[in-house]
Design a protein that fits this description.
Strand order of the largest sheet: 1-2-3
CATH architecture: 3-Layer(aba) Sandwich
Structural class: alpha/beta
Number of strands: 5
Order of helices and strands: EHHHHHHEHEEE
Length: 139
C-alpha cells in the first residue's frame, strides 16, 4: 500500500460532531457563541470563545476532559489503524485547531497513524489560555 495517501476531514468524519461546537456547548458558552457568530469570522470567534472561557476560569485540563468525551463512531478507529498498518500515508485536513485534533487522536490511540495534520494552529500563552490562529498565521 506504499504510495497511497488517505486524507481525512476531522469534524463529522473522524469524530461525529464539530469539535469547536462540542467544546463551546459542553463548557456552557453556547449563548455567547450564538450571539457572536454573525459578527466575526469563525477562527476569530473561536479565539474569542477561548478567551471568554479562560476568563470564566476554564483551564487546559477542563478543555482536555471535554475533548476526551467527544463522540467517535466505533467503526472509524479500526480502519484507520488497518490503513496505517498497511503502510498508507494518512493525513488530516480540517478547519478545527491542532490542539483539539491532537488531543482527541491521542486519546483514542491513533495520533501516530497520521503523518500530517493540516489545520489551524493553536498554542497556550503564558496565562494558560488557548490561542487559535488561522492556518496562514503562526505563533
Amino acid at each position: 500500500m506504499a504510495g497511497i495517501v488517505v486524507v481525512f476531514d476531522f469534524d463529522k468524519t473522524i469524530i461525529d460532531v464539530d469539535s469547536d461546537n462540542w467544546v463551546v456547548d459542553e463548557l456552557g458558552a453556547t449563548d455567547l457563541f450564538n450571539r457572536l457568530l454573525p459578527t466575526m469570522p469563525w477562527n476569530s470567534l473561536m479565539a474569542r470563545m477561548m478567551k471568554e472561557l479562560h476568563v470564566q476560569g476554564k483551564t487546559i485540563g477542563d478543555i482536555e476532559e471535554i475533548l476526551k468525551r467527544v463522540p467517535i463512531h466505533p467503526r472509524i478507529v479500526p480502519p484507520i489503524k488497518s490503513a496505517y498498518a498497511l503502510g498508507c500515508d494518512l493525513r488530516v485536513i480540517s478547519h478545527a485547531n491542532v490542539f483539539f485534533i491532537e488531543t482527541i487522536l491521542k486519546h483514542v490511540g491513533i495520533r501516530d497513524c497520521f503523518c500530517e495534520i493540516n489545520t489551524n494552529p493553536g498554542y497556550f500563552d503564558e496565562e494558560g489560555r488557548l490561542r487559535i490562529l488561522p492556518i496562514c498565521a503562526r505563533p
